[in-house]
Each structure stands twice: as structure tokens, then as C-alpha cells.
Automatic annotation (TrEMBL), chains A, B:
GO terms for molecular function: DNA binding. Residues 15-75 form the HTH tetR-type domain. The keyword Repressor applies. SUPFAM superfamilies: Homeodomain-like, Tetracyclin repressor-like, C-terminal domain. Residues 38-57 bind DNA. It comes from Siminovitchia fortis. This is TetR/AcrR family transcriptional regulator. Coiled coil: none annotated.
Length: 204, 204
């Protein structure tokens, strides 16, 4: 065994502790919500020594944003699918699929998304993280719009970045209402309505 | 003089005091933001006796929601204009006008709207008020959509209430970005982009 392998074992242990803390954090946030959750509760549930959570995360807000990354990963994957439609119909089919998967992924993590909603309202760190997440989605949508504009499928008159924002916000707010149970969970109808409005407006 | 006239004078005085408190509240909120503002500061600026503000308003949150009503009134007026278009073009012209006036009204009250945004995030009372405001706008838009669907101008396949939500949220978020200075203040371009996307998608 050489030094690098020993270091790697220690790193592996650190990774496991970090993973334990994240799993415990998830449970604590689900149980207590964001505001009532404490690092002490997380440490306790993870069976790590007193204060260990602070070695890995600056505060509960930072730990929480890590959990957000994991939740959003599925949604990013959906948003990041290659988007090279050759016709309006192809574009519609893919946009419909993306919209549906976006809503579905949020609903699969319904309880955690409720905590995310709460946390955005009270933690500037979480709010900033959410704004980064938004920017990432909006950046991707902007590129998709530019592609179809250059391909002659979508109207050139539109400001791609503004339309991307409008479209994302529409999806985001409807997603929150689904998560909070404020609109009926009919994913097919919801996604079709939104995708039809958007594609009908943007495409030639 | 009879009793009713005396009562009316007292009522008039009460109305003036209330008005003073609201004006003072506006100044204090603009100066300190929502969280740092106190009823004591408002009382002091209004030159009303100690504790008078609490006679008229339960707390600063309630006083603030009154101020929000006033700010939103102009926007409600815009949203409440009769909407009976006979063609897609007429509909577009009116939607464009409404969108522009909505953004413009918010920008005319830019500093107060920044405080509103802050207050929504920290006060459940203000958040609830904002949700009522949203519901009022969305209710109006839903009726407009139903009208044009019945008139055969817009596609019947759309769920009027869901589309109304999507459209309002798109406008709301873009409005916040304008208020917070996150997008360029080009009201014509912004309103045209949004109105074209929406009308293009919804109308036949």
C-alpha cells in the first residue's frame, strides 16, 4: 500500500460520513420542515460525533442546497436532453415530454419539494440556490429556442431569453401548485395545455 | 345638528387618522423595508398618539396589505377592462395593452413593489394577501379566455383556468424581474414578446 491508497481510504470514509449526513438531513427536513430542523438533530440521526455535520457543511442551509441538487438532477437530465427537432410536431412531442417529466419528477419528490418551497421563503442561501437552478433551466431553454429560430421553425421576432423565462416561470408556478395540492394532479392534461400554448405561440 | 352628523364628523376624523397612518406607513416601509419597519415608527411619523396605529390596524402586516390594495388598484383597473374582442387582432391589441399597463404600473411603484416582494417572503399575512390578488387576476383572465373560447376565437381544447394561471405567472415573474432590475426596462419589447406568445398559442 502506498500513501495515495491510504489517502483514498480516508477520503472514502469522509464520503460515507457526508452521505450519512445528507441522508439524515433528508429525514430531518422531511420530519420537521426547514425552519425547525437543526444540525444537532441531523448529527444525532446520522450517528456522527457532536459537531461533525459542521465539518462537512457550513450550516443546515448549505446541507439543504446539496439535497436540492440531488432532487433537481432528474429534472436537469430531462431539460438537458438533446433538442434538435426537425418539425413543429417533433418539437411539440419533445416539449410535451419534458414538461410532463418536469412535473412528474417534482411530484415524485412532493414532500421534499414542499420543504424546498418553505426554505426558499426563509433562507437567502436556499433562495440563491433556487435562482441558480432557475438560471440553469432558463439558459438551456434559451439555447433550445435559438436553435429552432435558426432552423426556421420558430418565429425570429421573439427574444429567446425572455420567452425562456416566461415559459420556465409558467412551468415552475404550475409545478408548485401541483406540489402543494392546489391543482388537480392530472399530469397529462396539465402538460398538454402548457405545451400546446407554448408551441402554438412560439412556432410557425 | 343631530346625532348622525356628530357621528359622521367623528368618522371623518377617524378616516383622516387612518389615512395619515397609511401615508406614514408608506414612508416608513419605503425607508426601512418591511422587516425593519415598526408600528412605533409609523405612529411617530403620523403624529398620532402612542399605540393609535393599533386601533386602526392589527399589526404592520395588516397596514401593509392595505397599502398593497392601493398599489394594485391601478393594475386591477387594467385587468378589469371589458374584454370583448371580435377578432384575434383585436384580442392581441388589448392583451398587449393590458400587459404593458401591468408592467408599467408595477414600475411606477417600483420601490414599493420591492418592499412587497420582501414582505411576501417573510409575512404569511402578506403572502396570503398576494395569493388573493393573484386569484383575482387569474379569475378575470379565466373569464376572458372562456369568452373568446365561446366566441370561437380561441381553441376550445384549452383548460381556461390553467392557461389563465400560466399566463398570469409568466407576467408576474417578468414583472418582478423588471422591478428588481434583473431585466432591461424595455416595456414595449417585453409586452410584445409575452402577448405574441400567448395570443399566438391560445387563439385560432
Amino acid at each position: 500500500m502506498d500513501g495515495s491508497e491510504q489517502l483514498s481510504k480516508r477520503q472514502l470514509q469522509a464520503m460515507r460520513t457526508r452521505e450519512n449526513l445528507l441522508n439524515a438531513g433528508r429525514e430531518v427536513f422531511l420530519e420537521n420542515g426547514f425552519q425547525k430542523a437543526t444540525m444537532t438533530q441531523i448529527n444525532k440521526l446520522a450517528h456522527t460525533g457532536y459537531g461533525t455535520a459542521y465539518v462537512y457543511f457550513k450550516n443546515k442551509d448549505e446541507l439543504f442546497t446539496e439535497l436540492m441538487e440531488t432532487i433537481m438532477k432528474k429534472m436537469y437530465d430531462v431539460a438537458g436532453l438533446p433538442f434538435k427537432p426537425r418539425t413543429k410536431e417533433e418539437a411539440f412531442a419533445q416539449i410535451l415530454k419534458q414538461t410532463r417529466l418536469f412535473m412528474q419528477s417534482a411530484l415524485e419528490e412532493k414532500e421534499m419539494m414542499k420543504v424546498v418551497k418553505e426554505a426558499i421563503g426563509v433562507s437567502p442561501i436556499v433562495e440563491e440556490k433556487w435562482n441558480h437552478i432557475r438560471a440553469r433551466f432558463i439558459g438551456g431553454i434559451t439555447k433550445d429556442i435559438q436553435f429552432v429560430q435558426e432552423a426556421g421553425l420558430a418565429n425570429e421576432k421573439f427574444d429567446a431569453s425572455l420567452i425562456a423565462k416566461g415559459w420556465f416561470y409558467m412551468n415552475e408556478q404550475v409545478m408548485w401548485e401541483l406540489v402543494l395540492g392546489e391543482i388537480e394532479e392530472n399530469l397529462d392534461a396539465v402538460s398538454e395545455n402548457l405545451a400546446e400554448l407554448y408551441t402554438g405561440g412560439l412556432y410557425k
